[in-house]
Amino acid sequence: MCAALADGVSQIINPLSSDDTQAAIHVLGQVGIPISEKGNYWQVIGGNFKEPDDDLFCGESAATLRFMTAICALIPGECRLTAGPSLSRRPLKPLFQALRQLGANCSGQSDLAPVVVQGGTLSGGLVELPGNISSQFISALLLIAPFAKGVKIHLTTPLESKPFLLMTIDCLKQFGINVEYSPDLRRSEVWRQIYQPATYQVEGDWSSASYLLALGALGGKVRVENLNLGSRQGDKMILDFLRGMGAVVEADRDSVTVRKTKLKSIRADVSDCIDLLPTLAILAAVANGASEFVGIERARIKESDRVAAVKAGLERMGIRVEEARNRLVITGSRPKGATIDSKDDHRIAMAFGVLGSVTGETVINGAECVSKTFPSFWEALKKLGSEVEIRE
Fold first, then answer.
1. What confidence tens digit (pLDDT) does each residue in 5-27 have?
2. How far apart are CA 283 and CA 351, in angstroms?
3. What residue spans define the domains of the chain?
4. 149 to each of 4, 92, 193, 203, 290, how far by Cα in Å?
5. What residues are paired with 287 via a beta bridge?
6. Of 85, 79, 32, which is closest to residue 56 (Cα–Cα)?
7. CATH number, span 2-201
8. pLDDT digits over 107-139, tens only?
9. Are 93 and 111 a contacting pair, CB within 8 Å?
10. Between helices 277-284 and 306-316, what is the axis angle to 10°?
11. What is the spatial distance between Cα 29 and Cα 31, in angstroms, rounded to a whole number?
12. How many other C-beta atoms are found inside a 10 Å radius of the C-beta of residue 231?
């Protein structure tokens, strides 16, 4: 998105090709931003937006829908953004309200997709919105703020997923945009600036790595390369959680090795790394004692209600789970193989795929949903020694 907003040619080095990123490529192409896939990099020719000829279908990519809803406020003419079934159930109202405060013209049938945006000039000024629903709403505003006459963003509630917003700010800086912000990120300010083309190196993904590292803790020794130990990514917290559960973790400059050991229970706040909940849940399923996870509420409005999906899957495997609104307690035992409904949620499928690797035969229904962010996941499990059979 930053490369699209920069007038000129940018390169994205070592990108991930998945359903989510392909959705972004497709939508950007519809609004006049050509993206060429060239081996280990993508070339983006930015700055020349046009009104699309058809609906902008964002698939199940929440980042694409939310970021493009904001960017469409800059594109002359009308843009209609649509989404897949799961994403169409996820709320957008705070983003709509914030964009209107900036002078944007956006509307939907409710607070959900599809959304229609009439592009025009942004007025700028003060924007207020909650910080505890999605950091992507704030990132979307930061993306377009340099085109307005000064934007101040105030969060009416404490920010959750703080690391992801810091990642946005770092990315903006690489494309020539500076953001001033308070230590707690509840206040930020952006003045009128011009995006500059850049060469951007994509980090290894700690979210995807978490499943492989968890497999090491449960089933043997696993080494994952291309991980930046200095990364802003919130899911880097998996290392602290693994160590807290007693796993043997060795980290060097660009790789992490985890070895199997007896795990113990843990108490963890996952509000800044909510995507780790399924991974931590399957680790807790074999740990000694009762693990408690708090800050889980936002996991209910992901691709599925992940709290309910985790609970249902673990109970089918014979694990005791106690659920409250913002709290989950999992008592470790000896999980048995079972048939798991992934709810077409990539993170549920991958987490239970890992747990199934160390229990009896486990069937993951809807397993193809991993293509959203980790298309080669099942092949990776095979390479690590798991017995994986793909059934049509």
1. 999 999 999 999 999 999 999 99
2. 9
3. 2-201, 206-383
4. 20, 24, 9, 33, 53
5. none
6. 79
7. 3.65.10.10
8. 876 788 999 999 988 999 999 999 999 999 999
9. yes
10. 20
11. 5
12. 16
CA distance 18 to 363: 23
Residues with catalytic function: 275
Question: Per the structure block, which two tokens stand in for 315?
Answer: 């109970």
Residue with tokens 């693990």: 291
Superfamily, domain 206-383: Enolpyruvate transferase domain (3.65.10.10)
Bridge-partner residues for 364, per DSSP? 340
Question: Could you tell me whether strands 290-294 and 267-269 are parallel, antiparallel, or unpaired per DSSP bridges?
Answer: parallel
Mean pLDDT confidence for 321-334: 97
Distance CA 151, CA 142 (A): 9
User: Which residues are CB-contacts of 148 (< 8 A; sequence separation ≥ 6)?
Assistant: 102, 103, 122, 123, 124, 125, 190, 192
Mean pLDDT of 208-216: 98
Identity of the amino acid at 108: G
CA–CA separation, 337 and 332 (whole Å)? 15
Decide if 2-201 and 206-383 have a common fold: yes
